[in-house]
């Protein structure tokens, strides 16, 4: 398919960010678009957001560079950005995390936890847990203890990311000015003060609520959705 957005004069230039175009069914149209160009009717692109949590259940948030286009100087979730042409959602997320924080992740075989649709595309969210200094999920263990649940090693929550040391992040850089850990309440306070990107507060709550969840149904965490067991398809 001929791509009206392509410019042979800039082909192969690393500074030009190109996006794959998708239709409403998330099927590639065969066309690409240069970042900053106008969207053509019916075409959408793919964005990813990464939310990394520590053992205490706090989210790693970043403050955008003061000269960055779009919400300069505001706090944001861990990482976000557009997927480039030729990348999958997971590969795009890996690249964005490395470019903005210097962290190398392997999301092979990992699906987004959920996807928000927006006017110009699809926004995939990945929610990951980082281990604490001892490799244990102390925050979750404390939470379980408060609820009267056992806290032995068999109840340990698996982590997705090695320990994240703020001092070792590759910041500041052209995109990120600072980073810190924040609770849900602290993020809401930053939002109320106009210091956080204006996500809907309910979306922030949803992100925290979905950490470690495989489904929006509570029953699904107890063994799967009704009617999805192998015996149901016999």
From TrEMBL:
Where would I find the Nudix hydrolase domain in this sequence? 43-204
Q: Which UniProt keywords apply?
A: Hydrolase
Q: Where is this region: Disordered?
A: 137-159
Q: Which InterPro entries match?
A: NUDIX_hydrolase-like_dom_sf (IPR015797), NUDIX_hydrolase_CS (IPR020084), NUDIX_hydrolase_dom (IPR000086)
Instruction: Write the protein's name.
Output: NUDIX domain-containing protein
Source organism: Corynebacterium hansenii
């Amino acid at each position: 398919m001929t791509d009206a957005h392509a410019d042979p004069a800039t082909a192969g230039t690393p500074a030009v960010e190109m996006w794959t175009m998708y239709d409403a069914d998330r099927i590639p149209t065969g066309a690409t678009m240069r970042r900053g160009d106008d969207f053509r009717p019916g075409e959408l692109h793919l964005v990813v957001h990464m939310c990394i949590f520590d053992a205490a259940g706090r989210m790693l948030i970043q403050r955008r560079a003061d000269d960055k286009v779009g919400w300069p100087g505001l706090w944001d979730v861990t990482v976000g950005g557009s997927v480039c042409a030729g990348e999958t959602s997971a590969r795009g997320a890996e690249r964005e995390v490395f470019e903005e924080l210097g962290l190398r992740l392997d999301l092979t075989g990992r699906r987004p936890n959920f996807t928000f649709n927006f006017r110009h595309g699809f926004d995939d969210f990945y929610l990951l847990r980082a281990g604490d200094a001892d490799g244990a999920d102390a925050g979750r263990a404390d939470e379980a203890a408060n609820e009267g649940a056992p806290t032995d090693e068999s109840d340990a929550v698996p982590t997705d990311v090695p320990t994240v040391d703020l001092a070792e992040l590759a910041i500041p850089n052209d995109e990120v000015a600072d980073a810190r850990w924040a609770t849900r309440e602290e993020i809401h306070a930053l939002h109320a003060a106009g210091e956080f990107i204006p996500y809907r507060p309910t979306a922030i709550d949803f992100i925290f609520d979905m950490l470690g969840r495989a489904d929006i149904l509570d029953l699904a965490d107890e063994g799967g959705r009704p009617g999805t067991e192998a015996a149901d398809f016999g």
